[in-house]
Amino acid sequence: MSTAAPAPARSRLRIPEAPRVPWEATPFPGTPVCPTLLTRFEIDYLHHLARNCTARGRIIDLGCFFGGSTEALAVGLRDNARFPMGWPAGPVLAYDSFVLCSWGERAMNCGLRAGECFMDRVRASLAPLGGLTDLRKGWIPGALASGDAERIYPEQEPIELLMIDCAKDWPVMSTILRVFGPHLEPGAVVVQQDFKHFSTPWIPVFHAMLTDCFSLLHSVPASASVSFRYEGGLTPERLADLPRTEDFAADDIDAVWDAAEGIFGPSLGEFGLVTLRLQRAHHFAYAGHWPRAAEALNRAEPGVAALAAETASKIAWERENALRNLAGRTRAEAAPGRPLSAAEQALIARAGA
Ligand SMILES: C[S@@+](CC[C@H](N)C(=O)[O-])C[C@H]1O[C@@H](n2cnc3c(N)ncnc32)[C@H](O)[C@@H]1O
Fold first, then answer.
1. How far is the CA of 138 from the centre of ligand 1 (A)?
2. DSSP, res 68
3. Which of 127, 226, 264, 269 could form an S-S bond across to 195 if both were Cys, CB 3.0 to 4.6 Å?
4. Where are any strands of DSSP class E within the chain?
5. 65: CA distance to ligand 1 center in Å?
6. What is the pTM of this model?
7. pLDDT band at 314; cut points 50, 70, 90
8. Residues near ligand 1 (Cβ within 6 A)
9. In terms of CATH, what superfamily is 40-245?
10. What is the enclosing helix (H) or strand (E) of 45?
11. What pairs with residue 59 in β-bridges?
């Protein structure tokens, strides 16, 4: 006599699968017109965020490049159910220097040379979206002079959604928080596009030191983006006392990254955790602690090796870049007469292999 349980009757109901992420159900419609450096996941995510804004504050895109992030936000705004009733919060404000850099020249291969202005191209690409975007040309500076905050953001109005993709160095990150931070509405969403990028350690450091002001909202899969909910508390005192690169002695760097890994690691997945470890190494390098940078990178290696197959190629790319970047800088910065540590020698040898 067979003891096998009878097969369950097959249901005729078509039960939809729950979306794995809230924005999967309403993706960006079609294909974006603007060239972008973002992944499809990030485009869908930005579209979802703007689609769910409530008009209680501005939508701002810092570092729009050729307009991909701006387009995702503007289409999300157009698709927002509240939009047809009128949108008092105005268009998406998109900031950029609009000056093509050398990697941009290579990446875009669009007939423009490094140093040339690409604002007209972005304006033309976004034209079908009518008045939903407002482009702002200029550099966000690393240091603020009197009146700069009002010049950069003349509206001085509440902000509901802030996409940051131009915090490419430590002082600019501080400026962004000083100019736009005071206008964030409690509950506003801040997207940090470079949070999971190996070479931007200031971003996790700021967030590790501002956990009372920002709580992690989403880690966008297959991308470097992580978003935060603004809880309030960016007081003038707090903004005057933001962490500076020169505040960190070598042991402080380890301490802040131990904290960052503890706070964010569990939400970021393996790829995110590895990028935090690579950023720790870069933080040491930017601070001039070359042997510690090499040690931190070497310590990150076993985690890289153990990663799951689907993230391995992306990680390998990050690791290769991090390795080459750090080895090159280590070589260049080695002071005459200072013998290289064993860790530094091993790093340089592996990068050369
Ligand atoms: C990685 S790209 C942004 C990609 C874009 N969000 C997209 O969807 O493709 C970074 C952009 O930030 C701009 N940028 C970098 N630093 C800046 C600064 N300090 N002020 C203004 N723009 C800046 C660059 O010109 C570049 O276009």
1. 11
2. H
3. 226
4. 58-62, 92-96, 133-137, 159-164, 184-192, 214-219, 226-230
5. 5
6. 0.85
7. low
8. 36-38, 63-65, 68-69, 95-97, 139-140, 165-166, 168, 172
9. Vaccinia Virus protein VP39 (3.40.50.150)
10. helix 40-51
11. 161
